[in-house]
Amino acid sequence: MQRDESDTILAPHPATALDRFADPSTTVPPRLLRLIVVEDEPVVAQAIKDTVEDLGHIVCGIARGEQEAIDLANRARPDLALMDVRLAAGGDGIVAARKLAAGFGIRSIFLSGYADHVTMRRLTETYPLGVVHKPFSTAQLRTALDLAGRRLRVRTA
Question: Which of 35, 106, 147, 148 has the fewest CB atoms lying closer than 10 Å?
Answer without folding.
Answer: 147
